Amino acid sequence: MGRTPVEQALIILATIFPQIPRDDLVRLTIAQRDAALFHLREQTFGSQLKGLADCPACHERLELAFDAENLRSLDILPKGEVALPDHESIELFNATAPLEVEGYEITFRLSTSADLMSTASTMDMEQARRQLLNACLISIKRQGQAVSVDDLPSNIADAVIERIGQATSWANLTIVTICPACGHEWEIIFDIVSYFWSEINAWAVRMMHEIHALASNYGWREADILAMSAWRRQRYLELIGT
Fold this sequence. Notes:
Blueprint: H1 5-16, H2 22-25, H3 30-45, E1 48-54, E2 61-67, H4 68-73, H5 90-93, E3 96-101, E4 104-109, H6 113-119, H7 125-136, E5 137-142, E6 145-146, H8 154-166, E7 172-178, E8 185-191, H9 192-218, H10 222-227, H11 230-239
Helix pairs in contact: 6-7
């Protein structure tokens, strides 16, 4: 629907948590944001996640399925309830992290949706990485002396970017897949934002068809149909042969 992944994530969170100002939501770290989305997805559609993938070698279509509980037992997903900060405690969630590489003492914070939005219009990948680095770096020292980000060697900058990415590694899960038809093995990146957004869109379209069918046959109002349990709606749909 023309929305970027960052916009999609913020729309979902703003709908579920209208009491939290949008300016605070965009300042959640990507890890916090996606942890909340994963938890909301489980509450909405359950722990089972399913999808389709085409083998890049033989183009066989595969059905994929995994359970969030299994990922949580492997410490890939956060355990327990995922709480979003209130307006007063938002700053506490944007914790800083230290890094020492080849004599450089670096302090940085984790990236946020606001950071990604600021680089969205940048077409050059290297420039986008540099903008993200500038936004997240808090201090750089070497032998007790402050160092400018412009003087930071490229390998040190890459180390910081990598460390930032590691902090959100569970949010973009890598699924190793083997095609049963040809034996080809490849990796699929699972993105909770696009997956949850697609599920919500599919649910909305399905609900519109159900409402149209029931309203057309019984003359019920949309609000009354939505107030029914999913089980009751399905039974009525079966009675009219839908």
